[in-house]
Automatic annotation (TrEMBL):
The keyword DNA-binding applies. Pfam families: MerR_1. It comes from the Bacteria. Residues 3-72 form the HTH merR-type domain. Keywords: DNA-binding, Repressor, Transcription, Transcription regulation. SUPFAM superfamilies: Putative DNA-binding domain. One of its GO terms (molecular function) is DNA-binding transcription factor activity. This is HTH merR-type domain-containing protein.
Amino acid sequence: MSLVKISEVTEKFGISSRTLRYYEQVGLLRSERPPFEKHRFYDSDNINRLQQILVLRKMQISIKDILRIYESQDMETLVHSFVKRMEEIDDEISTLSQLKAFVSDFLNAMTAHGITHISALPLLYEKAQKEFLSASKQDLSMETLNTISDKLAKPLEMDIVTLPPMLMITSIRTDSRRSEIESFWDWLSANQIPFGKPGSRTMFEFQSGEDIVIMQKLPGQISDMEKCNESTKAFPFEYREFTGGLFAVSSTYTDEDLGALQYRMLQSFDDNPSFEVDFLHNGCLRHEALIEAVFSPENNRERINIYVPVRQRKPNFVDYSEFEITECITYEEIERANPILQEYGVDFHKITPIYDPHFTVLENGEAEFIAWISERKLDTNVAVRLPFRVDMEFIAEEESEEYLWGTTEGSLWFSHGGCTYTMNAENYADKALKEHALSFQQPVLGNAFSYPEIGNIPHDRYNKLTWIVGEKHFAVILNGEVRFCGVSFPYMNMDLHLHTPETIIIGTNGQGKKRFRSIKISQLKTSAKTNTIQGALKMNVKQSNNTLPDLRQIIHPEYGQNYWFNGCASYLMECLDERDFDYWFFAGLTGENFTQIFSKNYFRGSGVVDYRLSEKGNHHVIEEIFEKCGYASTFVPLKQILSNREMYVQMLIAYIDKGIPVILNDYGNNPHNRFGWGVLVGYADYGKTLLYMGGDGTVPDSISVEDLLPKGYVDQDDHCHGWLFIGEKQESKDLAGIYRERILSLPQLLTYEGENYCFGVKAFHAWADHIEKGYFEKITPEEFDNWGMHTVYVCCLATNSGGCKGFLDKALALNPNMTFISSIIELYRKTGHYWNDDNGTDLEALGGGFNVTLEALQNKSKRKKIADKLRAFADCMDGVSALIEQFKAK
């Protein structure tokens, strides 16, 4: 069977690789990648099918109909598709015939009635409809005429442009707050402020309520903001800072129907993958539609541009073709193809440490860096835009490079514009799981790639590492050896010169020490772009998308804010302007920052809330949390949402339009996350796509409703998955009382034990017994789930050891008589020492912390010491309960 490379197919048939990829996605074609090949190939059957598809598409048979043809494999479906297309053509002919008949009748009527002036045309239209239109044309109302006109309208041509920020003076008077164009015109002339030339993008008009407003850019000597504050006080007209940004622009003549053009512009964005209309959370445009005069090719007709504010959609990398890995290429060839425009040497003394890593500049001029955990990093304070290059000369000391913490242990990484580039990634504590991978996210699109065994860093010697994120190559070079080189990445075809500069942040992970001899960051040259038209755009006058205005990440692991539900709840309250109910409040109220967890059977989540929701019918737990804050709420189980999906999506849209997020617990078939907590913060395509924030992400992710709420989807376990809608505030709660009640109820929480799980003291003892009695002896390396079987519990105790202090401090401040809280703080601080700072006898030192291995859990001597240490944690929790009970007994 002969195979044809995809590049040969695109050249032979004059079709783009993206179109081929789309045909594969919808199921019309199938390619294959033979073993040891970098490229995809098509066999003869798929080549023949592609030829058939191209013939059908040239006859404008829709993809949907083509799919139906191949699904049925009979001539009847094919004939039906042809008949349907002929009917569409007949409809187009009929529309033209209707318009022709309408024009003909009007021409005859004008002649018969002696019409000599255009002002009589509307009256003639009304009379004609009643008197002389033939019976077959009686349905030609003005609405029908509008429909015909829309059907026959020329394709809409638009560009996407960037308008710069400008200080503008408007025709709105400061005293009356009304637009007075005549006097504004006179004032501009009297003050010798030059009028904006047609097409210069310095003078616009727009509609504000009932007024037409003129907006003129102020000249440089006035727009200097340091001088402007005094000079503008005397202005009789309002000035404003125009923020600029992206706008869609289309041209027309003033004698055309401007409202119809704007309507079509607003209708032209719904299915556009790159741009959408820029609506604010209240449903209004970011800025009113602007009109600008431009030079006209016709002396007797005035031409204008109409500007509508738009914004970029977040790219979806599945719409883009795959890149190719290039072998047998030298470092010198890559350098020549990606020339440097400007090189910046990083001054170690000007580096800004983030989250307190160990960082010092040594006497010999080198910089020493230990991050401990990945969130601790270094800001180089050097910003570059794509494409760019980073060169580091460094040494990694082998004697301190132990793999203890997790997937990036021993790594060296940097980030730029939200994408991370890592050497020596994916190294776990278990030696069998070390991958020494090279990993990165593609610029702009953000999709992740990982290549094991090519990211290993030699230790105890100086290394020269180069990352070239170029326009021609994406390459990684270590000590002159090309470890990876890719070409034809989708980002390379984008307008890279439009992207803003981003700072380079450098990080590592774990206890491994890195010493830098030099760091250089280079701006690479960008090819000139001459085609500025972005293509046809589609949008709708009816608001089809909306996003909450103040988005932020939900959790901050670097601050110990690890529990996702509490981050979601605090964000929801923040949107309701309830500032007292922050993350630490909810982490204490739920007990997640106080209570150890342990499951007796299977992984149930990361904290108390997940555990309680792991049992069917427990969704009231969430409602009770918000009830303590004085709010009504409704947690709708996923099963109920799926039974009336459209209604709940519309309900979500209504909440977003009011500026209120919705909490969700379950991501359906989301490829990014199997399930978890998040907040729904927006929608697009009339709710077909939903936007959510989860974890420590700083920008929302999107997911289709079909994936989030798939038809036929059922929970795989008893977890109470669903959405939380907040209701009205029922009463104002006493904050001191909430904190007091939580503290006094801790003993009940710290001693809870049920059939499936336990908390606090019980959890520590059950966990210790689980280990010491040999549960892990029967576990094979393939079955060992480090996180679900052990490390999640370590994360819980580590987080709680310091994470509860904020709640306890606030409780004591609000309830000064509860002096015993100071002793509780000391007991939790003591658990912090037991975890990672106890003179060589702490959990980490014993090998039972984040650095745990299956070997340690299977070794009788080691696991005995680990279990005994866990029982010491239990003693501290017993002490917490005893202090509270003594206070309650007084």
